């Protein structure tokens, strides 16, 4: 009698462990998918920002020095290799802030109808980059937390997926934009 | 002639372009021309009387490092006002491809425009991205000057056309007249080095290895070092017993640099690469100090193919030690090198260089009315805007 009860309890325990491992693996899968999706969105927003920046730089609405600065930075950001991406995007943020630091510069751009549109789109793109980056880093954080669990490490539940890295960059938008652009939040 | 010079980099930061503009301005004035320089500088910064400040420079990442540049509406307004007030016969901009005052001046001016290109690296893909605003401004330059063969080649490759080669000048008088530091070079001989200590391409480790070899046979040989960098890190590989024989001056002012060059028996330039000119070589030659340099193309050109100095295989510490030793033992050879060098360096003396520059000025101003503000793309930004016309 005791042998059977012991065996049944042992079996139940094994089943429980197997269920937990399989549930955790599925959870990890979902997290990795979430990270991938967030990364894709972040890349898209960064690309949108650098495209808009390039359009502004070559529009002729800024002085040529600011234009060259922003165009160069936008180009470097869109062409950067993975490990230089964070720095290149930070440089673009700095270049944009520097080019749009003076109220007179913003006024000059906003005076042109397409220019005003562009400022609005840039403002929106900058804000979306900040959001996308936050969502991505959240996803990375959550994934790393689960991957740190002992069970995940011992049983290699993460499979061959590499550890996701957070994306750290300076993404503060130009200051005067929000006041200038009508309807910007 | 009334000459307007434009410096794109912060005036109070030590740099090759700034020093060039300053020396050019002073030599032009010595030769009787009226000169005004506009440069990024704070309104209340202490400046020489011929410099007009264009406003506080802004630090921005550019070309791989942080540069202090002036751009934007206020700088543009200052440049235009300076142009209007200056009534120059010729406008001479420096490094016009960099996003600063020189580019703004090209955009704002019409008339005789001369541009000097200093750098041998132009980020062509990034510049290409800025093509619509960059090229129309650069095209207004009537005559292009490059300070070295490498700069000229870069210019031709990336912007097309050609450029006149007029090298960086050196104030020979100032270097030849400096007095050596007390106690130097000393009876045991001295070698000199000036450059960034921790940058591998400057070649300091090569010199240290050679010094170690030489020091074995020469108990009184010393090494005089100047330049920025972490001294402890730089001297890490040197055996402790040799440390007292190395004197490190750190960053030196121009007058001290001249004295330092006069304080050694042989100046060594062990650079392993990345040099487009080698102005320190011309300074050493001007100081009357024999030069022993790496066999880099740029150095070979400046030393006139081994005639005004000696070359050694790049990075070869053993060869460097051997040749340095031979030079230290042969004062006659050193004297003849110095004599040949003093003739070669005359080509680089500011007086000669400025004569060539003035010749370029005269060519572009012939028959021209003078430099005026370009009112087609006047103070109303956006004349060249692609939409809304």
Structure description:
The complex is a heterodimer of chains A (185) and B (389). Chain A is mostly helical and 185 residues long. Chain A has a single domain (2-180), classed as LemA-like domain (de novo design (two linked rop proteins), Up-down Bundle), CATH 1.20.1440. Chain A is 75% helix and 0% strand. Chain B has 389 residues and is an alpha/beta fold. Chain B has two domains: 2-169 and 350-373, Glycogen Phosphorylase B (Rossmann fold); 172-347, 3-Layer(aba) Sandwich (Rossmann fold). In chain B, the strands form four sheets. Chain B has a seven-stranded parallel sheet, with helices on both faces. In chain B, strands 13-12-11-14-15-16 form a six-stranded parallel sheet, with helices on both faces. A two-stranded antiparallel ribbon of chain B has the order 4-5. The longest helix of chain B has 16 residues, at 350-365. Chain B starts with a strand and ends in a 16-residue tail after the last strand. Chain A binds chain B through residues 54, 57-69, 71-76, 79, 90-91, 94-95, 98-99, 101-102, 104-105, 108-109, 111-115, and chain B through 58, 60-62, 69-76, 97-101, 103-104, 106-107, 123, 125-134, 137, 381-388.
As a percent range, the share of strand residues of chain A is under 5%
Query: What is the average of the pLDDT values of chain A?
Result: 91
Q: Biggest sheet of chain A, in brief?
A: none
Give the strand tally of chain A: 0
**CATH H-level superfamily title of the largest domain in chain B:** Glycogen Phosphorylase B
Separate helix tally of chain A? 7
Distance between the termini of chain A: 72 Å
For the largest interface, the chains and their residue counts are: A-B, 38 and 41 residues
Radius of gyration of chain B: 23 Å
């Amino acid at each position: 009698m005791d042998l059977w009860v012991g065996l049944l309890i042992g079996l139940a325990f094994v089943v429980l462990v197997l269920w937990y491992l399989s549930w955790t693996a599925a959870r990890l899968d979902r997290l990795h998918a979430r990270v991938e999706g967030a990364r894709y969105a972040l890349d898209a927003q960064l690309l949108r920002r650098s495209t808009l920046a390039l359009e502004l730089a070559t529009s002729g609405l800024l002085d040529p020095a600011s234009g060259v600065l922003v165009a160069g930075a936008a180009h470097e950001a869109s062409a950067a290799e993975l490990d230089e991406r964070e720095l290149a995007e930070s440089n673009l943020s700095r270049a944009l802030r520097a080019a749009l630091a003076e109220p007179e510069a913003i006024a000059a751009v906003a005076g042109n109808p397409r220019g005003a549109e562009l400022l609005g789109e840039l403002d929106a793109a900058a804000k979306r980059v900040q959001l996308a980056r936050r969502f991505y880093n959240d996803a990375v954080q959550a994934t790393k937390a689960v991957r740190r669990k002992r069970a995940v490490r011992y049983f290699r539940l993460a499979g061959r997926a590499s550890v996701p890295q957070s994306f750290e960059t300076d993404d503060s938008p130009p200051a005067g934009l929000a006041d200038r652009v009508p309807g910007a939040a | 002639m009334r000459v307007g010079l434009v410096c794109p980099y912060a005036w109070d930061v030590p740099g090759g372009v700034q020093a060039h503009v300053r020396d050019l301005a002073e030599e032009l004035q010595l030769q009787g021309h009226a000169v005004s320089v506009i440069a990024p500088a704070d309104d209340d910064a202490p400046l020489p009387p011929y410099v007009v400040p264009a406003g506080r420079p802004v630090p921005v990442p550019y070309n791989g490092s942080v540069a202090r540049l002036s751009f934007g509406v206020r700088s543009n307004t200052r440049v235009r006002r300076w142009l209007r007030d200056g009534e120059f016969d010729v406008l001479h901009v420096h490094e016009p491809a960099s996003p600063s005052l020189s580019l703004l001046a090209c955009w704002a001016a019409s008339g005789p425009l001369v541009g000097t290109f200093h750098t041998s690296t132009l980020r062509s893909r990034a510049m290409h991205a800025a093509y619509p605003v960059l090229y129309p401004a650069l095209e207004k330059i009537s005559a292009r000057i490059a300070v070295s063969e490498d700069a000229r080649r870069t210019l031709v490759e990336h912007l097309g056309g050609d450029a006149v080669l007029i090298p960086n000048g050196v104030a020979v008088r100032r270097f030849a007249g400096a007095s050596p530091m007390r106690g130097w070079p000393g009876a045991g001989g001295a070698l000199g080095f000036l450059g960034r200590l921790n940058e591998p391409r400057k070649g300091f480790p090569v010199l240290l290895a050679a010094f170690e070899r030489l020091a074995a046979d020469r108990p009184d040989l010393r090494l005089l070092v100047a330049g920025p960098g972490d001294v402890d890190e730089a001297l890490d590989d040197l055996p402790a017993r040799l440390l007292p024989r190395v004197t490190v001056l750190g960053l030196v002012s121009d007058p001290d640099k001249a004295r330092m060059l006069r304080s050694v028996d042989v100046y060594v330039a062990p650079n392993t690469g990345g040099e487009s000119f080698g102005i320190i070589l011309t300074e050493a030659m001007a100081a009357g100090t024999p030069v022993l340099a790496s066999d880099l193309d740029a150095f070979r050109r400046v030393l006139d193919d081994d005639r005004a100095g000696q070359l050694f295989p790049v990075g070869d510490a053993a060869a460097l030690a051997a040749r340095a030793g031979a030079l230290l033992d042969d004062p006659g050879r050193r004297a003849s090198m110095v004599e040949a060098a003093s003739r070669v360096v005359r080509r680089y003396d500011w007086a000669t260089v400025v004569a060539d520059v003035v010749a370029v000025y005269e060519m572009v101003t012939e028959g021209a009315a003078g430099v005026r503000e370009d009112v087609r793309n006047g103070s109303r930004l956006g004349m060249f805007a692609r939409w809304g016309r």
